[in-house]
Amino acid sequence: MTCSLKYAPQLRAQGLRMTPQRVAILHVLHHTGGHLSPTQVYEMAREEHPSLTEPTVYRTLEELAEKKFLLAAHVGNGKMVYELAENHNHHHLICRECHAEIQIDHAALEKLFKELESASGYRSIDSHVTFFGICPDCQK
Amino acid sequence: MTCSLKYAPQLRAQGLRMTPQRVAILHVLHHTGGHLSPTQVYEMAREEHPSLTEPTVYRTLEELAEKKFLLAAHVGNGKMVYELAENHNHHHLICRECHAEIQIDHAALEKLFKELESASGYRSIDSHVTFFGICPDCQK
DNA sequence: GTTAGTGCAAACCATTTGCAGAACG
DNA sequence: CGTTCTGCAAATGGTTTGCACTAAC
Fold first, then answer.
1. Span A121-138, average pLDDT
2. Most CB atoms closer than 10 Å: which of A70, A96, A107, B132?
3. For residue range B63-99, what is the model confidence (pLDDT) as tens digits?
4. Which residues of chain B are within 8 Å of residue A117 when distances are taken between CB atoms?
5. How far apart are CA B36 and CA B135, in angstroms?
6. Looking at beta carbons, which residues of chain B come within 8 Å of A127?
């Protein structure tokens, strides 16, 4: 599980410490590769570090997101999900009926983001976006 | 407040009844014109119909959204917001720092939606989208 | 009169907080 | 050692559910 330890120096650089709890959490996010809810992270990371608690997961995810190691997004019904920032090169398109989801390449939105930035004066519009539609299967 | 009663025939056409509670809820959504959380709707509509309760607000909003009278979206931290579907001709851009928000005209996204539909096979991609960035003020 | 809608109370679940003790560096 | 981080326990807040009663049509 040394794969998670590679983040240690970066964490230190931000004044954060590398604890076994954080190793487990980063490990989960690193190996699943996708976006996970705090509860999902908790359940999976607990297998590696059984004494892990939910408050720790929430605090860690929030902290890591604030320091830009993770990216926070909202998928569907008000649930917060996180994924490793280094994995974030895509967005999501979710079926309103069956909740099937596919990835949208970030390149498809880059031009739009640029346009929005120059039109609005806002900067750093690069957040994760979730679109909703009806997938081919559910179109009957 | 007859303005809300104009929806009565449309509701009935969908098998829904027009109650004073629904009048109050529609009234609030109609006159504020923007998106509101269930709690906000509850507090404002209660002034017009004091015996209104939260469960009724949640059930009504969900029902009306399902029947396409309202549009449900997610703004910021996992909070569900609703607005009259007839008002929905825009999207939102919210500042990550101060939460200032501006509207994005739907026209700006129409081309993207078309592209996504033909690329993915998904249909009816027209949902409300919320973007995040840093507003001019917070750029210091 | 039927059926949909409401109020009430309580359950539920994700998330947050305070604080004392543990542990990283 | 000092400061950060964690665990515990409990509170919080938004949202949902079951059920008996009311009201719309």
1. 86
2. A70
3. 999 998 998 887 766 678 899 988 777 888 888 777 7
4. 133
5. 22
6. 96, 131-133
pLDDT of residue B59: 97
Nearest nucleotide from residue A14 CA, by C1' atom: D4
Q: Which two tokens stand for residue A86?
A: 């280094």
Chain A residues near residue B71 by CB distance under 8 angstroms = none
Contact across the interface for A133 and B139, Cβ inside 8 Å: no
Average pLDDT over residues A69-95: 82
> Domains plus CATH for chain B?
3-86 (1.10.10.10), 89-139 (3.30.1490.190)
Tell me the whole-structure pTM to 2 decimals. 0.84
Task: For strand D, list residues 80-139 of chain A whose Cβ lies within 7 Å of it.
Answer: none
Q: Which H, E and C letters describe A21-36, residue by residue? A: HHHHHHHHHHHHCCCE
- Write the burial class of residue A100 (CB in 10 Å: 0-12 exposed, 13-18 middle, 19+ buried): middle
SS3 A6: coil
Distance from CA of A135 to the nearest CA of B (A): 4
